[in-house]
Amino acid sequence: MSTKSAGQAVQAGYKNIRVMLAGEPAWVKAGYPTYANYGWVCRGNIVLIDLRSPEKDSAERIPRSVNIPFAQFSDNYDEIPLKAPVVLYSDNEEETTAAMRMLLENGYKNVSMVEGGILGWKQLGGNLEKGPVVTDINWKRILAEGEVSVAEFKKALADPKEATILDVRTREEVAAGKFPNSQHIPLDELCKDMDQFVCKIKDLQKNEKIYIHCTTGARAEMAYNELKKRDFNAFYLIAEVDCSGDDCSIEE
User: Fold this and answer.
1) Same topology for domains 33-123 and 147-251, yes or no?
2) Topology at the third CATH level for domain 33-123
């Protein structure tokens, strides 16, 4: 649930509302399953994997999927680009869950499943195709709207004239370390006090670039959405940021 959704729930009368500010990456890291929505499966820049047998795949499969049977998955999963968002499906939930955990344990960060597998997809009315099995994976990283590349972010770190770096992590996270010259407003305070935002950011003009980061990108994207509504020239970083004092690392 985003901070915006949480606010709407409170307005609707719900009392016990909590937001997981670390977002989906922290949810996955805790070992909980995630499911891809219909649009993400249809149009997302993903690697979609069918874990069923080649015979079942050729008879009917979700469009754009690549076949890696579960029986061979442990020997072939490294063909999937490490940085690619991966969506898995099968007709066996235990196998799909096992494949997801295998990827997460081996460094893949963005892994989800088609809820209900191939049957769940059919129940949603999802399109199917048939034909020769596809085994080649062709994937290229594409920046989302509003996303800043790691290279551009680092350029701004080296030259503050390029952009204002806005850190939306918690005060506890920042106490452990932060980028030198970055400005800090925790996400919960940013969204609560948006009308006072300009007062909190030193010498900021709406036409100046703002590069937002957190630890993974989930909170940075939330902050970006709020700033864009108010016509700020904002961008967000999707990457793992880890700081110890002034020493910060960025990993895509």
Assistant:
1) yes
2) Oxidized Rhodanese; domain 1 (3.40.250)
Calculated CA dihedral for residues 15, 22, 39, 9, nearest 10 degrees: 10
Query: What mean pLDDT comes out for the span 156-175?
Result: 95
Structural domain spans, the chain: 33-123, 147-251
Q: Is the dihedral of CA 145, 149, 150, 154 positive or negative?
A: negative
Quote the pTM value: 0.65
First-to-last CA distance in the chain? 24
Q: Burial-class residue 241 by CB neighbours within 10 Å (0-12, 13-18, 19+).
A: buried
Write down the CATH number for the domain with range 147-251: 3.40.250.10
What pLDDT, in 10s, does the model give residues 171-193? 999 999 999 989 999 998 887 87
As a three-state string, the secondary structure of the chain is CCHHHHHHHHHCCCCCCCCCCCHHHHHHHCCCCCECCHHHHHHCCCEEEECCCHHHHHHCECCCEEECCHHHHHHHHHHCCCCCCEEEECCCHHHHHHHHHHHHHCCCCCEEECCCHHHHHHHCCCCCECCCCCCCCCCCCCCCCCEECHHHHHHHHHCCCCCEEEECCCHHHHHHECCCCCEECCHHHHHHCHHHHHHHCCCCCCCCEEEEECCCCHHHHHHHHHHHHCCCEEEEECCEEEEEECEEEEEC
